[in-house]
Fold each of these.
Amino acid sequence: MIINRRNSASRHFERSALFALRSVLRSEKSLFALSSLILIASVWTLALPASTADLPFGPWTRAANEPILSPQGTTWESAGTFNPAVVLHNGKFVMLYRAQGASGTSRLGYAESTDGLHFTRRPEPVLSPEAPYEKDGGVEDPRLQKFGDTWYLTYTGYNKKDAQLCLATSRDLIHWDRKGVILPAYQGNWNKGWTKSGAIVPEKIDGKYWMYWLGTAPSEIGETYKTDQMGLSYSTDLLHWTEATTTPVLPRRPGMFDSRVVEPGPPPILTERGIVLVYNGADDQLVYRAAVAVFDRRDPRRLLSRSDAPLFAPEKPWEKVGQVPNVVFVEGMVLAKGKDEGTVLAPGKDEGMAHNANRWLFYYGAADKFIGAAAAVAPVSKR
């Protein structure tokens, strides 16, 4: 695991500066674009003296060598079960996962576990496409965050034409109330395409809710393809969102493992040192790997550090071969207590990790067909 604050801050500035400079060259509103460039430069300068943020987890290992959930049956989850959100609810691990049948339509399944690795599924999905913005394509890629007694589900609604970031709420994780599209496609300061992958910060900052998300940036000079990069928005009610930046808050990096796609993973966690966001990056060959970025907990727009190398990559055959090859895509993240603190983790499944230690469990889609789990020790708090 390599976190390089200064280098990643420098690259962030360079990429954002180029983004804004191209806006100057292409846009008639050059004064606005130039002011954006000046703002980016000032933010970068402020980031330089920040110390490297400590991560709340150590190196990742696979918690299981085989998938913990696989396609089954001949109907709604026969082709793929992947991209899971996992939370602790009423003393159990609860998973919402994307499932596809032979037609390719996506639904959200529900499964429970007492140890975080062995899950029992409900026979029917808990969310199926019904709204016009979901019809025929489905409901995809869940992420969960809780405020008060209410769970907030961000997901992608896909109608075979557009993919858009949507919201639903529930108190039991089974019965869901749709709130509609919260970030429409083809809108935004820099987004020119679909919107996906809403990762909501667990607490208000400066009186507002914050959410990292995926948008599509226009192709750059000399390139023939668009790139998916990370945006940031804020809200006072979790329903109406305002974009917080004029350029991607976490841009792609040419020549690196996240050159083509930079997509939020699970909802971030807050530490004393920052907002820790696991994200999914893809290179020019669309190999997906996991990485981490840390933002200022007083200003979610300000990047403090970023992985120079992936935390986790596809290695197992079932991570390399499936509906989409060479993909590990993290969407779930849970802090599991060791057996000394009340939760007994499955014996024999982790690769040498002590069961009496607290550890983070990371849940990921593999090759858009299976679900796997990784683990990392949580450092002991110093008091």
Amino acid sequence: MKRAVVVVPVLVLGVFVVLLFEARTNSARDSSAPGTTPPANTAPASSTPIALDEPLVVDESDTSESQIEPVTTGPPTPIDARRATVRFISDGDSFDITWSDTSERDEVRLIGINAPEGDACFGNRARSVLRSLIEDQTVDIQVSYRDEFGRILGDVWVDDLYVNAMMIEVGGAVALTDASDHADALAAAQIRAQDATRGLWDPQLCGSDPELRVVIVDINADADGRDDENPNGEWIDILNDGEDVVDLSGWSIRDESTRHRFLFPTSFLLAPNERVRVFSGCGDDSTFDLYWCDGNPVWNNAGDTGFLVDAEGLFVDTFDYGS
């Protein structure tokens, strides 16, 4: 087994960030029954630069270069990964493939991450980032399972670059708390993206009015007893920490999976220094209590992220808890 250091310049918000990672090359891989392991041939790692076809630019005059520590190297490509060719990119976390060992078509969703939809802030750009990484490329996929839509959920590598983490690293997706065997690596990638204010975390792109001081102050995820039997034991508290009344019409709350979304009532006003509690279950709305009435538990007990989003789809605040 040989290892080579590959330098990959990536244009992120007008800054070329040089990602250093170790690329492994194997002389061969063991092959066995179709659907369980990749084919024997393994292409050498490529040092071709990743060029975003839709540059993530805020200040086009900023062409400075910087380096960050190797972060998207690992985990390394597992020996039981299955090889495929990417045919079509659906969005920032889903794509179609052809399996190399069977020539069958399939749809893959990157496990452990959630990219914004096309009509959301950064949605189209997230798709462009994924296209720049894997479109028409040969990839290695570690299959976890199929979801209710029949899609493969898995971890993906291209030339030993861990794609799931890379999408988070450039701010093209958020990490899901407990949906991947490599959740720690994904969470670390998100911290770096947030610290560097890349992509979704750039206030100039997806941030709301900085004068707004409406914040998430707490989430109670673990209701007494069974969550599905006590949905109102789950709640999220929103505080207006500013000096002006804020109209929350069109604002929303969502979890990191985006499967659960709450829309504030029309003309709902939050006065200064007041808070509103949004319960996951059903009930009668009042000035200080609102009800999601989702039908299912909303917040993951093991850990989750709450997003407060304004009427234009921009982030006002986020709140992380758990592992």
Amino acid sequence: MTPNQVRVYDSCHEQLKLAISLYDLNLKLSVSDVKISLNLRGRTGGQARYLGYMDYELRFNAQAIEEHIDFVISEIIPHEIAHIICRSKPSLGKNHDRGWVRVAERLGCSGSRTHPLPLSRAKSAVKHVYMVQGNEIKLGATQHKRLQTRKQTYSVKGVMGMRKIRIEPDMYSHSFKIHA
């Protein structure tokens, strides 16, 4: 674990304890009810998730933690904790409404809905390559799985000139039918 990741864990625990006491949620919420993940990718700085009865998850962007740790601690962590507090006590607010903004500001952040960090888009690690009439078509993992399980067909523009074709699995073999 990197020093910045340790700082995020420590800050989350401190800020959760503060928020629980500020909003008198000692009987409804404890620090142990909140799982902390540091593996969020893409342009999202953080995410608060409700996992079920009294279980929550705080997710933080790994790139933001390594490149913008001070902003994560001062803005993103209180922002996400405000979502958990409002979910635990709905009379305070929800989503990004005025009540939620008051909670977020009281926890020390600006209450802004978005962040200005220059984070990279998440890139799909796996591309599945299909050869369709001599042309290479790349599908992501989700599209590949749907195609393989025959749950969906795909249309591809421009493979055969300007015509639109449809790729669907052949029901009787492992090949694919091409519909022009």
Amino acid sequence: MKALVYDAAFDVSVREVPDATIERPTDAVVRITSTNICGSDLHMYEGRTDMEPGRVLGHENMGIVEAVGDGVDRIKVGDRVSLPFNIACGSCDHCVQGKTAFCLRANQAGTAGAAFGFAAMGDYAGGQAELLRVPWADFNALVLPEGTDKELDYTMLSDIFPTGWHGVELSQFEPGDSVAVWGAGPVGLMAAHSARIRGASEVFVVDQHADRLALAASIGATPVDFSAGDPVEQIMEATGGRGVDRGVEAIGYQAHDSSGTEDPTLALNQLVAVVKATGGIGVVGVYLPQDPGAKDDLAKEGKLVFDYGTFWFKGQGMRTGQANVKAYNRQLRDLITSGVATPSFLVSHELALDEAPAAYKKFDSREHGWTKVVLHPGELTTAG
């Protein structure tokens, strides 16, 4: 089968690899119809993780079930399914509590949490390929309506829509709250979309890329261009000095200022400054225990200079971590089916798998107009 393989920093290629097959009775094999390039794929693409050369990338996957193991009795051949980026066993202490992002059995290294095609999250192949092996398929696969309708919406259920929703949830949001989202990449835009659906009174989205800020405005959010001035000051002025009730950090450890200087503490400390006393902050941007490519020794150890004094004095709360996709994806599927949610608004490009290496380069370079790339390893059969 064809697959997109990580070779080295800034070097990925499409080539033939062994077909995905049933390895355990609880497996399924899915023929991928849509698989997306995620912003977190870029951490690996840029060589900022310990991703092994030769691994197939891709954790945002959906497709049609092609084969099932003898132990699979819910999922059927021919089902159209969305596959959470989390790989979870369904029976460990964390899974039975709904914390599937922290499954205790799936990661071969023995640490909590596993994923398709992701550094330090087990040795599972990713889905930027024609076929994908899905462990514990009955537990992990979400069945979708038949056909090709809303393909570009449903393909966001594997990661970014649940992750954006999770960011709002982590902030302890309540209807009527005002929200500031740091980062207008795909996850940040999904957080803004989620906040609007959930009844936010106002949503600010902070970024410096005009195309992303335009998308934020298109869903009713207020764009804040940090290249035009301090975003905290802009939001404080817009709110009459009150700030916002909730904040969502959707950038992660490679945050940088308008000059391009990387500062992993920047977004976190700005959120502490702009969120009201007793307000909440949800952090879904990726942070790592070690970052050898960081600019200073502290950050290389995953340690940050955080404005804890202000955070404590304001009585704020902060919750963090990867999204437990299964906690949200069924409800979000139904919001898409009913037309309430339309996460496909951010898709800029639909491409064949062979075009993936060039797409990675353009997406990583933040070229204007490259806001979300959906790859179709097979025929382009989407109905929008």
